[in-house]
Amino acid sequence: MEKKRDYGVLEPVPPSARHFGFWDMVLTWMGANFQPGAWTIGGTIAGAGFLGALMIVLLGNPATYIILALVGFISYKIGVPTMSVARASLGVKGGYLAIVCNIFSILGWTAISNYFSSITISFIFNMMFGTPAYGSSGCEPYMVIGCCINALLAFIAVYGGSRSLKVFERIMILMLVVLACFITVKLFQTITLAQLLDWVIPADKSIAFGVGIDAMISFGITWTLLSGDYTRYTKNVRSATLAPVLGACIAAIWFAIIGVISVATVALTTGVFDANNANPASLLVGLGFGWIALIVVVFSSVTTSMVNIFSGTVNIMGLSEKLPQKGITVFVAIFTTLVAFIPVFYGSFADLFMAFLNSQSALFPPIMAIIITDYYFIKKRDYDISNLAKRDGAYWYTGGFNIAAIIAWVGGTAAF
Questions:
Q1: Helix/strand/coil percentages in the chain, nearest 5
Q2: Is the pLDDT of residue 3 over 70?
Q3: CB 85 within 8 A of CB 401
Q4: Tens of pLDDT, residues 377-387
Q5: Residue 152's pLDDT is what?
Q6: Which DSSP state fits 382?
Q7: Is residue 277 within 8 Å of 266, Cβ to Cβ?
Q8: How far apart are CA 244 and CA 246, in angstroms?
């Protein structure tokens, strides 16, 4: 009988140990994208107007997550995570460059989730105990506590590995869907479709359609490098390809549209449009929503952090097979909590958030293009797993680096 465990980054998962079914993957990727980041992106691209933002959301997400399916299929076929797959195209040593970039991205997104949760928890504390909430003098200690609470909940969920993550996602997503429906209904009781269609953005606050598309794709593109961390455990092709796309699109589109409508509602009722007010907790409180709505934001932050902490652990283990999984999980949870303290004391989160998104746009599309082109067209879907770590093997290229692929990556990043 196959032992129930998580497999090493260069250890193919055998069919008998693959435990993620179709709906498990749908829920996992809903959990990853039912997040305040999607809501905030929606608020940011609201500068394109309601119809413009709606088109950005409906076009940008499916286009991004088709790549998720293409990359996820590779790990399903060969049984190792995406960052191990990258060694075949970038070289055994070149793959480490992709791992480092991906770790930077994962840690950043986890910290962002913690930060969003800290804002929400500060408002909950305010309602319960009268302590200063986000935006008030003296709120920082309570936001720091919020960061810690979010990280602890996510850590508990993923400490047991992929099977533990799967169970917690099932529970959290079902509650999230119910609560998200509540928020959606309440929003449309506050504003009408006609008001949204008539809403005019101030000229100095508007954004171009292309800028909005870039922001939307930047939000989703980093998930594609994490897909193999989960699809290597899937039972069939549909679970590895269709399920992640379905789950990611449902959640990202839903929450982004909520973000657009929320910012529009605040702008129409107050006469002020400000992208810095796009964080979910501030919007919900400003619109008069109670603590139930705030719980949605906390839950969504936790489910996203769960995925990020697990993938962060997998990616750091890719630097050395000797690193212990549970020890790395502890490190990721603690480190990202500390990083989340930075925006707590930073002046404009919107500027910091957009700068982070720009870095994702520059770094990751070229890597995706290289991996997909190499696997599907150059290597004809034929990777030799035994050579992924072998010196002087098929993927050693020149001193461990595929120079042509590295130049293409650097060139693509520079062109951005």
A1: 75, 0, 25
A2: no
A3: no
A4: 999 999 999 99
A5: 93
A6: -
A7: yes
A8: 5
Structure tokens at 204: 């100095």
Nearest to 164 by CA among 298, 4, 314, 10: 4
Q: Identity (one letter) of the amino acid at 199?
A: W
Q: What is the pLDDT of residue 245?
A: 97
> What is the rounded distance in angstroms from the CA atom of residue 100 to the CA atom of residue 264?
38
Is this model's pTM higher than 0.90 or not? no
Task: Look at the block and give the residue holding tokens 């598309």.
Answer: 213
Token readout for 262 is 């929320």
The pLDDT tens digits for 232-287 are: 999 999 999 999 999 999 999 999 999 899 888 888 888 888 765 667 787 778 77
